[in-house]
Design goal:
By secondary structure, this protein is mostly beta strands. The protein has three domains: 225 residues; 95 residues, Immunoglobulins (Immunoglobulin-like, Sandwich), CATH 2.60.40; 77 residues, Sandwich (Immunoglobulin-like), CATH 2.60.40.3080. The protein has no helices and 29 strands. The two termini are 34 Å apart.
């Protein structure tokens, strides 16, 4: 069975490099006991003495089309010292934007009669063998709550996204066979503050169509792989895109450009295929905060009314990582829109206030890859509408409203 391995290692701070790492002991997850429940919501499991005097607690905090029990919560047949849950996805999913996952809370506590949370300094988590099933169907993903910070892995194929709560690593649909830690194509890494963290939440699962009762093995290895501790070449603080007539103005702010070379700008009209359109070389300022602008002239036209952008950030030694995606629509779509969205960001329900809704035919919600995740017909005379977004993953989405005269309007919102 293909393995999906998460390796937790330790490193010095967020800006650590392979030459500046701590050397942590290995955590041994080979003594599991059930605290409460049997794989349902709020079930908790304890791994005793993962380090001398330290217990790790794993609690199930959310379930979406996923199941597990006490027997499959950990299987040490392949990796005796790792935590290896076997997660089953019981129901079939058909849409590209569907997600099936289990959310866990990870805690480290003292191994005492009255355990208390115990911060783990310099904690990092590396994702290994995060890939798809090879037939343009589902892809594996890992989401971790902030203050987790994505770190660069040379030659990784994973896409990384971040909002105000989560960091998301998402694979492509390609599968990698006989994967191991020497193959970094399906790897990504997260680091936590060097001041220490005692608990965090993570979602592990798949995105896209999946057959009923598909089971996936996930392995969490808590040990150090010093060669994987590779710092991002730059810290991206902000990245935005705005349409000005047919042009698109890109702007971003960065920090910590030590040993940094340049940015490569890529554009896509469908969210899948990207083309290189230009570069901006480092102009790091003395205070460490640097602003950049790039004009993509005539990027939007009558036929091409929206686009996606991302940055490839390249270090002087050739290491690189990708930014999150940003979406922009033409002014006729987004700036002079005849509808408004609230609240934005939205957690459960997104309200849409539409002018002249009798002219509107449908509302479509797309993810950043251009996949339709929600489609809704607008009834004549309906001035206000709402969309249930509770099942969507956190991140950026685009709403497109189609009108009876053939025109469309688009805007974006953030799902918490």
């Amino acid at each position: 069975m293909k393995k999906f391995i998460l390796i937790l290692s330790l490193a010095f701070g967020l800006g650590a490099t392979a030459q500046n790492t701590c050397l942590p002991p290995s955590y041994f997850f080979n003594s599991k006991s059930r605290v409460t429940g049997n794989g349902g919501l709020n079930s908790q499991y304890r791994f005793n003495n993962v380090l001398p005097g330290i217990n790790a607690y794993i609690t199930i905090t959310k379930i979406q089309n996923a199941s597990i029990d006490s027997n499959t919560m950990d299987n040490g047949s392949s990796y005796p010292l790792a935590w290896q849950p076997f997660i089953t996805f019981p129901s079939r999913r058909n849409l590209a934007g569907d997600s099936s996952y289990m959310e866990f809370k990870v805690e480290f506590k003292t191994a005492t009669l009255e355990p208390v949370l115990l911060p783990q300094n310099c904690l990092a988590m590396t994702i290994v063998d995060c890939d798809g099933n090879g037939n343009n169907s589902y892809r594996e993903f890992v989401k971790v709550t902030l203050p987790a910070k994505p770190m660069g892995i040379l030659n990784s194929t994973l896409s990384v996204f971040q909002d105000d709560k989560w960091v998301l690593f998402k694979s492509g649909t390609a599968t990698f066979n006989n994967i191991d830690t020497v193959n970094k194509a399906a790897m990504g890494q997260l680091s936590f503050p060097s001041t220490g963290i005692s608990s965090y939440s993570m979602r592990v699962g798949v995105i896209g169509p999946i057959s009923a009762n598909t089971q996936r093995q996930f392995s969490f290895y808590f040990k150090s792989f010093a060669g994987l501790v590779v710092a991002l070449p730059v810290e991206l603080i902000d990245f935005k895109a705005q349409s000005v007539n047919s042009n698109v103005d890109l702007s971003w702010i960065s920090a910590k450009e030590d040993n940094f070379s340049h940015y490569e700008i890529y554009r896509s009209y469908n969210g899948h295929q990207f083309e290189y359109i230009g570069s901006e070389y480092s102009k790091s300022s003395s205070n460490g905060i640097t602003a950049y602008n790039f004009a993509d002239l005539n990027a939007l036209s009558t036929d091409l009314k929206s686009a996606y952008y991302r940055l490839r950030m390249v270090d002087r030694d050739g290491r690189s990582t990708w930014s999150h995606l940003v979406y922009v629509g033409s002014q006729s779509e987004s700036v002079n829109s005849t509808f408004s969205l609230f609240p934005n960001p939205a957690s459960t329900v997104l309200n849409i206030s539409i002018e002249d809704s009798e002219m509107c035919e449908s509302v479509i919600v797309k993810d950043v890859f251009g996949n339709v995740v929600i489609e809704k017909h607008i009834t004549d005379g309906l001035l206000n509408s709402n969309i249930d977004v509770s099942e969507l993953q956190s991140g950026l989405y685009v709403i497109v409203i189609s009108k009876a005269d053939g025109s469309v309007e688009a805007s974006s919102f953030v799902k918490n």
